[in-house]
Amino acid sequence: MTHIAFIFALVNDPGVRSISFHSEKISWKTHLAWFDRQIHENNPFYIVSFDDKPCGYVRMQRDPQLPKYEYILTIAVTAGHRKKGIATAALRAACKQALAEQSVRKIWAMVKKDNIASHRLFIKTFRKEAGTQIVNGHAATCFVYPDYLE
Fold it and tell me: Would residue 137 count as lying in a domain?
């Protein structure tokens, strides 16, 4: 399976869709256009592997409403690899690498209020909440890395 097909299957996983701010299924055509933009915009994008097989991804995307060197992060891990510490390790590694090698200075994550697993992940990794806001009609908790708020 190619990375494009793997990510397409993962983003359309019902568990992933249910915690997304856009919960509708993604078409193959939309996915291909999105993937092409990710490559051409040169945003940080990491495939997470376990036993040499893809099991998730961490990606960062520019938001024109944020300062130039700030990115929004998204992470997803396959159902069979959740609750094993893989997401925590992947998130830490991706953030450190993006800060060291890319033009990234600050990373934001927005998590739906009812997404308990992601709240735990980001508290563990980003250490504390950085406020709340409404994202596409959903209450969201904001997290920021590195922790400039102390």
Answer: yes
Residue range 19-31: mean pLDDT, rounded: 91
Q: What long-range pairs does 36-43 form, CB within 8 A, spacing at least 24? A: 43/71
61 assigned to some structural domain? yes
- Beta strands across the sheet bearing 53-62: 45-50, 53-62, 70-77, 106-112, 138-145, 129-135
pLDDT band at 1 (very low <50, low <70, confident <90, very high): low
Condensed to tens digits (0 to 9), the pLDDT of residues 26-47 reads 999 999 999 988 888 888 999 9
Per-residue b or e along 84-118, where b marks 16 or more CB atoms closer than 10 Å to that residue's CB: eebbeebbeebbeebbeeeebeebbbbbbeebeeb
* Domain containing residue 55: 44-145
- Domain total for the chain? 1
Backbone angles phi and psi of 18, in degrees to 5: -65, -25
pLDDT of residue 23: 86
Report the helix count and the strand count for the chain, using DSSP H and E.
5, 6
Name the amino acid, one letter, at 12: N
In this structure, what CATH number is given to the domain that contains residue 132?
3.40.630.30
Would 3 be classed as within a structural domain? no
